Amino acid sequence: MPDSTRKELQEARAALNTAVRICLWSLLFLVWTPLTWWSLLFALPSAWLSYHMILNTAAVYVDLLEAAFDVHRHLLYQSLRIKPPKNPTDEPKDGKKLTQYLWREPDQSMPDFYDPPQK
After folding, report:
1. Which of 54, 82, 84, 109 is the most exposed place for a label (fewest CB within 10 A)?
2. Domain limits of the chain?
3. How far apart are CA 23 and CA 100, in angstroms?
4. Tens of pLDDT along 24-77?
5. Beta carbons within 8 Å of 93's beta carbon, 6+ residues apart
């Protein structure tokens, strides 16, 4: 995968991790509510805002991940030395074979492998 795509995905994942971390700390801050009532004033709005931040950043991350796969899936086939689909109608069937292979659930129909070109 190109470095620019990888960097975009890493940044989106870091934003998602940050949002989850903020939400978790906000919820953990609720433990102090019996001792200090004002902690509730901070914890609930912070947890609510960070929850919505999680939803937004997760949507961005998923969109980027799907786009990266759609654009660079030929590199996956190439790196695994699996013949890519011949036409778009074969892609779902070949994609299922590839998924089964990657999940180590092979059935009778394995992907078609090829030898790398000689240099």
Report:
1. 109
2. 3-79, 82-119
3. 36
4. 999 998 888 888 888 888 889 999 999 999 999 999 999 999 999 889 988 888
5. 85
